[in-house]
Amino acid sequence: MKLFEFEAKNVFRKYGIATPIGRVVGSPAEAKEAARQIGRPVVLKAQVLVGGRGKAGGIQSANDPGEAESVAARLIGSSIKGIKVNTLLVEEKLSIAAQYYSGITIDRQARRYVALASADGGVDIEEVAASSPDRIARYWIEPGDGLTRTAAESMMAGFAGLTKDDIGSLASVTAALYKVVQDYDAELVEINPLLKTTSGEYVAADARLILDDNALFRHPEFEGKDNARVDDTPWEARARQKGLAYVDLEGSIGIIGNGAGLVMATMDLVNHYGGSAANFLDIGGGARPEVIKDGLILVMSKAGVKAVLINILGGITRCDLVAQGVIEALNEIADKKPVVVRMMGTNEREGMLMLGRAGVGVYSDMEAAAKEAIRLSGGPAR
Q: Would you tell me how many other CB atoms lie within 10 Å of the CB of residue 110?
């Protein structure tokens, strides 16, 4: 789950990280009033869950309340990278002495968190990593040790021009971010830019916080919040609402299986014989008929799907229940696509008989099923 900038800043403040004075608004009139209350030049920032807002025109400044109202009128209702702007964060405009980057994310290869810092804040950190990797300090965090103040200070010591007080302030912010990561089960937390103002204060001018969806049950404060991701396709958004493990792809053959490894192997086989997968859908082990039905209806609703291949290895998943779900889906769908099922395992014979009576092609051989699905989709099978 991605949090909006203002939500992330609300969290950061709990951990002693300074943020600009600001207010979330939903209308030009509210923006004017917010700027009046702040009493100095402001920055109006579109609250959308995409990166690169500034380059896309989603961050603009205003010198007085009247100008803030005009800017808000242009931004609210506009589109930033295809996302409609409904709210703005109006914040005081800070005087900048220096810009830094501080963040913590998961290094999946190392299987631990890694703290990152750079003296090149205010630009895409990915660009810095690609062009000047030596400009990014990294510290891999031992789970049992955490991120100590000493370790955080050692990260900052290599940046030119920093005083001892600067190093201490940057280290404090980065150590606080690690506490956020731990308490909120975060996949990513970052501040870019982390500003040093002309008065010497370190302030989080921007904030990103992404939580692990699997840990949301531990955070009741986010209950009821839409956890759809901004980069979801319509089918991925629907799958997320149904609790289905689904990834949208660009091929013509819908792929459904029980187990991520089996689904990936099925996709590879389809590709090997000249077809292309339209999606990845793992129904998991022990799936009930309604899960199969929901998954098949979802896959068939995609216009580019020409045929569907269902691959089931019945262990705790019963083949007869899979067949029941397939039949229920086909009875409900108006715009049916050809379906090919490969199944073997628990109650295999019963499932195959049920599908056969319903006119669904069913196979015990995985390669034969893949070739038939490709043929039905109109693609080449070699």
A: 10
Q: Which fold has domain 21-92?
A: Dna Ligase; domain 1 (3.30.1490)
Question: Catalytic: which of 30, 67, 187, 190?
Answer: 190
- Is 101 catalytic? The answer is yes
178 is catalytic: no
List, for the chain, all residue ranges whose pLDDT scores fall below the cut of 50: 227-228, 381-382
Domain 234-377 has CATH 3.40.50.720: no
Q: Which amino acid is at 258?
A: N
Q: pTM (2 decimals)?
A: 0.66
- Decide if 144 contacts 116 (C-beta within 8 A): no
Which of 5, 69, 101, 236 is flagged as catalytic? 101
pLDDT at 133: 72
Name every residue whose Cβ is closer than 8 Å to that of residue 179 and which is 6 or more positions away in sequence: 15
Query: In Å, how far are 64, 69, 187, 202 from 38, measured between CA atoms?
Result: 10, 14, 33, 19
For residue 285, the model assigns a pLDDT of 83
**Cα gap 147→26, rounded to integer Å:** 38
Q: Options 3.40.50.720, 3.40.190.10, 3.30.470.20, 3.30.830.10; which CATH number does 96-222 get?
A: 3.30.470.20
Q: What would the pLDDT profile of 177-226 be if each residue is shown by its tens digit?
A: 999 999 999 999 999 999 999 999 999 999 999 998 888 889 888 876 65
Instruction: Please state the separation of Cα 172 from the chain's center in Å.
Output: 28
Task: Name the residue ranges covered by the structural domains of the chain.
Answer: 21-92, 96-222, 234-377
Q: Which two tokens stand for residue 7?
A: 């939500």
- For 319-354, b/e burial (b = at least 16 CB within 10 A) is bbbbbbbbbbbbeeeeeebbbbbbbbbbbbeebbeb
State the CB neighbour count (10 A cutoff) for residue 219: 15
Q: What is the pLDDT of residue 382?
A: 46
